[in-house]
Design brief:
Strand content: 5-15%
Number of domains: 1
Strand order of the largest sheet: 1-2
Largest sheet: 2 strands, antiparallel
Helix content: 40-55%
Order of helices and strands: HEEHH
Distance between the termini: 35 Å
Radius of gyration: 16 Å
Shape: globular
Number of helices: 3
Number of strands: 2
Length: about 90
Amino acid sequence: MSDDETPRNRAHRLKIQGITAEIGKVIQGAVNDAAGPKVGYALYLFDFGGKGSIAYASNANRADMIVAMRELLIKLETSEQAQNIAFRKPGAS
């Protein structure tokens, strides 16, 4: 637990990590069945509003995941369509 993490925040973080791991197992099976072991995946769960918990599951090693994440960020940041998307909590106005 980090110095600024409360027991409640730690419990929430561990819950998010557990959910991510379980969903990741399902995704891993589906990816392998549909596309084989040469296709990577990543799943992110995070709290809206920043400074919350974030967890990811992936079948890639860390270095490859970082490369893929950077490539995705570049595409999102330079895409006209992405520039018009406002990410917000579902149901928020």
